[in-house]
Amino acid sequence: MEDTFYCLRCNMSHPKSDKVLITTKGGVRRWSCIHRVKAKKDDQAVSDAFGKTVTERNKALSKEIAKSSLNENLYKR
Ligand SMILES: [Zn+2]
Questions:
Q1: Which of 4, 13, 14, 32 could bond to 18 as cystine, CB 3.0-4.6 Å?
Q2: Cα 37 to ligand 1 centroid, rounded to whole Å
Q3: How far away, in angstroms, is 19 Cα from ligand 1 center?
Q4: What is the pTM of this model?
């Protein structure tokens, strides 16, 4: 049987090779697993991409608003 450890973060057992020692923001060293570390990185990438999308969308939206209010003004004349 493969050597495993019980991961409190995932609430499941992983092979011992998945165990990693991390240092938290507070400087505390604790055991985690590569799954958590990877998930955290993915989350960061996703939220970065999401932030960029929102910024682009807001830019496009404000351009649209500027255009439409300009058209309205032209129409009123
Ligand atoms: Zn885990």
A1: 14
A2: 9
A3: 8
A4: 0.53
Binned average pLDDT, 10 residues per bin, the chain of 77 residues: 86 93 90 88 90 93 88 70
pLDDT for 69: 82
pLDDT of residue 73: 72
Cα of 58 from ligand 1 centre, angstroms: 38
Task: Output the CA 35–ligand 1 centroid distance in Å.
Answer: 6
- Ramachandran angles phi, psi of 28, nearest 5°: -90, 130
